Amino acid sequence: MSDLIGYLLTGLGIGAGFALVGSGLVAIYRVTRVVNFAQGAFAVLAAMLTSSLLGAGLPHGVAEVGGVVLGALAGLIVGVIAIGRPGTSPGTSLIVTLGLGVLAYAVEVLIWGDQPRSFPGVSGVAEVGGARLPAHYLLILAVTAPVFLVMAWFFARTDLGRALSACASNRYAAQVVGIDVRRMGLLAFAIGGALGGLAGVLTTPVQQVTFDSDVTLIVNGFAAAVLGGLTRPMVALAGGLLLGVAQTLAAGYGGGAYQMEVALVLMLTVMIIQAARTGPVPETA
Amino acid sequence: MTERTHPGTVPDRPARRRAGRGRRWALAGLALGTLALPPLLPERHLATFVLLLLAATVTVGVSLLMGYAGQVSLGQASFYAIGAYTAGLLAVHGVPPLVGLALAPLIAAAAAVLLGAPLLRLRGHHLAFATLAVQLILLSLLAQADWAGGAIGLQGIPRLSLFGVELREDLGYAYAAWFVLAVAVLIARNVIESRAGRGLRAAAASETAAAASGVAVGRYRLAVFALSAAFAGLAGGVYAFYLGYLAPGSFPVLLSIEYVVMAVVGGLGTIAGPLVGATVIILLVQVLNTLGTQPGMPDYAPSVLSYAVYALVLVICVLFLPRGLVPALRSRVGRVVRP
């Protein structure tokens, strides 16, 4: 029983990382219809910078915020290149973000080398319901929950958030009422970058990060987001948590092997069922 | 190859035929030129030549898939891996190499049909992520499969022997790779000019319209997916015998992305595109690699430079030459020739 609680909490912690990456994808996709392939790179960049800042003697908190800010900046830069040129189709933008994800490899290896990196998070072991697990997992959950609440409030209650949602539901109508759709797209990219960066900063203390960890992050993030058709952040949260728990349960009871397969097969199944239910959808990207 | 008229679209038949004939001569010239090249190359460039031809073979398939069937595959290296492991495992267990090489594309195509049947319902970015997921699953399974060498890899693959002659030198593999590429180009060319090819082009433009006109869209898409997998599998088979060693790490996700870069840079939906794309990218990476390994350069320089090249070439090409190098060059030359 205590094993199960331990696996569940660890799974939720890992899943929160996927959910943050996934909701970043959703934030960008809703507004711009671009699936941002560089989303995993934001997490890696933020984590790498945080480890450097901590190494340089900055206190916890400041270093992590620095990482998230870098993520947002990287998001903005990717956005400018991917959707900055008028008339770039979402399909073209997808390929551009793919290229920028590879470019991030060059930057990361150049600055931080190709060895795995990590930094200490919350130290110590927490005991919950008889299960012992690194206390850092609880911090991940404690940060992720308010972030999603703030996001829900932002998209529903603030002018800026409503403008973003307006672009998401009808681009043309949003333009007609005077919303600068392109600027909203760039803002979405920056938000997505910050969410990706937060995922990297939060999960690195429990999972080392290398320059090519972005592939696992983006695939799991996409898997989380695709449950809600890439447009609903809250479903991405649920999807991410579900994936994380499924993976740790598979790893815990299955002896460590095949945990990635569980997540990927789950994602493939969901996508195939979605496609079968809606029929061949018109190509959007 | 019979030239069929497309009512309403190609009124100028003689010009088209002239262009087709010119292109055929260019292809023949290219074939002869590259046949004469290997003996003249020094040993270390010969290795690049072999890998270039193999990459071009895979890219021909990717270009066919993306340009004609409108599908993005980010997992093409998985079929390369399936072909390589098929040939390698069979050869290690004593099956004659030529049989293994013949089975490599067949097994890869069979895998593509099995995977494609459910996956090709997906479109656009869904399909891109699905193919990426398939490759991650394959790599993870290969790393855990002890019968395939596991994460350490499959060692001791014998060399390729053709009719009792063992290919020991790189030169032999250069010709084997050339032959493989030639087969892929010829098949791709025939497919494009066939009735099925026209159907595919129609389906890539508008699936609904093509289906309404009686094109069996689903079946054609699956066939192209299988064909592109067969090309990758065949190239993978040659690769297995050439290197004599296979590991899951030889087929990273980045390799799949490289094929997409080559196909996009060269120009999708052309025959020359993948050849030009693979050549440009591989030569560029090779030149930078030589620069990066100069004394005095840091040891991370080669990988940084190659990542940067893939990234920048892809981004610049997609944004500023969206149709790729070959169509861009062709229209520029056409403008100069016909004032």
TrEMBL record, chain A:
Domain of life, source organism: Bacteria
InterPro entries: ABC_transp_permease, BCAA_transport_permease
Keywords: Amino-acid transport, Cell membrane, Membrane, Transmembrane, Transmembrane helix, Transport
Stretches that traverse the bilayer: 6-29, 41-59, 65-83, 95-113, 133-156, 184-202, 222-245, 257-276
Subcellular location: Cell membrane
Annotated membrane topology: Multi-pass membrane protein
Family: Belongs to the binding-protein-dependent transport system permease family. LivHM subfamily.
Protein name, per record: Branched-chain amino acid ABC transporter permease
Organism: Actinoplanes sandaracinus
Species lineage: Bacteria, Bacillati, Actinomycetota, Actinomycetes, Micromonosporales
UniProtKB/TrEMBL annotation, chain B:
Annotated keywords: Cell membrane, Membrane, Transmembrane, Transmembrane helix
Predominant subcellular localization, coarse grouping: membrane
The keyword Lipid metabolism appears for this protein: no
The keyword Transmembrane helix belongs to this UniProt entry's keyword annotation: yes
Transmembrane annotation, as ranges: 25-41, 47-70, 77-95, 101-120, 127-152, 172-192, 223-247, 259-284, 304-322
Protein localization: Cell membrane
UniProt membrane topology term: Multi-pass membrane protein
PANTHER family from the UniProt entry: BRANCHED AMINO ACID TRANSPORT SYSTEM PERMEASE, HIGH-AFFINITY BRANCHED-CHAIN AMINO ACID TRANSPORT SYSTEM PERMEASE
Protein name: Branched-chain amino acid ABC transporter permease
Organism: Actinoplanes sandaracinus
